[in-house]
Amino acid sequence: MNRRAEVAMEKRGDVSMFMVHLTRDDRNVRTEEQGGRNALDNFINILETRTICALGIHCYHGEYLRKLSAEDQKQFQVSCFTETPLDQIAKLLNVGSRKINLEAFGFVFKREFLYSKGAQSAIYINDYGPNQLRDAVNCIYEIGEKNGFAGRSWPLLPFVNVMHNGHDFMWEREYRVLGDVVFELEDLVCVVLPEDEYKLRERLGRMGIAAIDPAWGFEKAIMELASQQCKTRKVWKKLSTDAMKSESSTK
Fold first, then answer.
1. What is the mean pLDDT of residues 145-173?
2. I need a surface site. Which of 25, 41, 127, 186 has the fewest CB within 10 A?
3. Half-sphere exposure (CA, 13 Å, Cβ side) for 158?
4. What is the rounded radius of gyration, in angstroms, for the C-alpha atoms of the chain?
């Protein structure tokens, strides 16, 4: 990540150094065979597989793309993230008038990790006023479709959305990655998890992963991260001590 950009972001509360993938209950749009689960089960599946799967098409031309072959559709499937600051994540949850609502389960990554995976901010075409950008992206789509989406222009399309009186999600501050995002536990900054998920929090704690509730204030989140660091240090200290004892007993 560009160092000057990093320094500038460190001093601003309205810009986050992190990106978050939030899970949702998607059983109303996917069958169980298609991977439809509630938000908690989706969270656990991602945790166990270390993979955020690109299952959906979310771009402006989605209506047309869903009529194409499965192979063509796959080129447009993305995994989604938000750059919303951590202390504002709660404002993305349970927003009214939506088919699918994000819930308080998610994974927090550093920006540079997702940049390395090809993360790109969603591009919103302004259709509130007079401009020709909507026509421009339609031309790109038509050319791509004629060429079997094999040219150099179509990769822009999975990131394009339009905003107008009937449809506007610019407030989500969304980033997208073409395809799945595979990660290791050490790539996680922390996870987002409701405070009352005690057993799952305990399991994550044993894995050295801190969990923050989006309903918490900034200071409580800091306390949780500090507490998890102490727990992890104790675990490693015990493992190190046990290893030394085992080595001594074999001499």
1. 91
2. 186
3. 23
4. 21
